[in-house]
Structure formats: structure tokens, C-alpha cells
Amino acid sequence: MIKIPDKLIIDSTKLKSLMTCPRQYFYEHVLGWRMDSSNLHLVFGEAYHKAQEVLLLFGYTEEAIDLAYLAFNEIYREHFSPITDSERTPKIPIKALEAIQSYVEENSVEDANDEVLFTEISGTAPISPTRVIHYKLDSVIKRDRMIISREHKTTGQDSKAYHAQWDLSVQVGTYLHFLFCMYPQEDVRGIQLSTTFFYKAQKAKFHRRFITRTPEAMNSWLQNVNYWYDFLEQEYQGLASELKNPGPVMESFPMNTESCTKYNTICPYHDFCIVWPNPIVKAEKVPFGFHTEFWDPREKPTTNKIDLFT
After folding, report:
1. pLDDT at residue 241 tops 80
2. Is 119 exposed, middle or buried (0-12, 13-18, 19+ CB in 10 A)?
3. CB within 10 Å: which end of the chain, N or C, has fewer?
4. DSSP string for residues in 88-102
5. Is the four-CA dihedral 280, 283, 289, 293 of positive or negative sign?
């Protein structure tokens, strides 16, 4: 049963999906169709984030490394058995342990005087007098009297395209928006992207860079976010009309056919778009290999919650 929400729950994950392809958003967030198999990259990233939180909370010590590895395994082994590690390298626990050890060795001096204010913080921040965006940050840290957020990323692709994606990213804009809502602009240095590159045949490598934006750039981000919020409201209105009398072709949530093979992978809904001009009439039955699971940022457990209001 397709339901039209009374109130939109928007975060950078949903906006990224909408901006990539509205039809993808329909399958993923309106119908809630997800592939049955666990996503290795998402699971590994979540586990590695938890390990990094442990290091922030307990310091760069041998004991903290052990605790971080235990935290990583607790999440990772819920999804993947040790007998499958050979198929999933380099995103496996032993490689994660090597990376955690190397990370501590490489960054212990630079991070020694950091004051950790928050880890794993989530909530809402206003984007208009009547709208909020849900956010999640890995950390908020005071360094040399300035506020930063260190955000951890994992990948195997060290390329210009990888690094360039963050400069205008709606996700990074959301990180900055929260910091600017929480602290005076002059006290915020920016977002420190801390990327770990994982490789099969060599040890992990690390890269850090700061990203900030001018007030004008943040106003551009805000305008863009509200544009897509308006667009999503419009598409839900169109969908509500179509549900009453479905036609041969679905007019709301149009396909962006230039994103079908984004990141050199095929969209999991690609075949549906080929054979179903109007997926509304197919929505009652979840396809083989998929299950129903709705993403709601409010339900994701985090260590700290802060809701900001206008």
C-alpha cells in the first residue's frame, strides 16, 4: 500500500537519492524496496565509523584500539560470516584492524590536543520557518579554540572525482549548516573529511582535508535544499492524484536515465524501469530478491541528540 506522508522527513541521504533520480527515490523511499543482500560498503562504513567513535572517546591507546576493533566486529559480524572474508577483501575485519592501528600511529600527534565535544550526534536543524532537515555528524571537536567536525569516509578510489564530489555535496552542506546553527560563524573552521582508502594488496592510506563555505555558498546550499523539498512535495501531490486513477505511464517521480550506471554500478531498480512504465500498478507485491525497509533518520541510534528550532 502506497502511503502519502503527512509530513516530509528529509535528510541528506534522501535528498541525494532524490537528486540522483526521482524514480529511484520512489522505489527506495516511497515503496521502501531494498535488496535482500546486505550492502558490504554500507555495513563496513557503519562498523568503521563506530570504531572511530571509540578512538575519539577513549583516546589513541592500545586498549582503545582493542575496543575499537571489538566495536567494529560487533556490527560487521551481524551481516557477514568469517567464511566469506576471502570474497570481501579489503573490506574485512583484519584490514579494518590494520587501518585502525595505522590511523592511530599517523594521527596521534596531530590530534593530541583535540577536545571532543560530541560524538555521533543527530537531530534536526531549521531550513525555513516551517521546515527542518535531519542531520547526523560523526563528531564535533574543539581544536585550537576553533570548532570542527571530523567526518570519516571509506573507499578504494583515490581519484580527483572522489575528492571533488564533496565540495558541493548536500551532505557536507548539512554538516556545515548544523555547525553554523550551533556556533558563531567566526568560531567554525569547517568540516575535516578524514578518508581511509582500503586496498587488497597494500595497507590502508589516509587523507584529510578541510572544507568550509562562505555565507553566500551556504545560502546557495539552503536555496538548493528548499528547491528539492518543494520538488518532493510536488511529486507527492502528483502521486496522490495518480493513485486515484493510475494511467499507462507514471508521471510523478520521473526517471533520470543518466544516473542508471552512476559510479560504474547498475541501479538496483534498472530492470523495473525498463519493464514497468507505471510501477504504481506493481506496488502491491514486493519483487523477488527485495524486501520492504524504510529509511527514517529519526530511528538511527546515535550517542547524542540535538534538535535545533527557529
Report:
1. yes
2. buried
3. N
4. HTTSSHHHHHHHHHH
5. positive
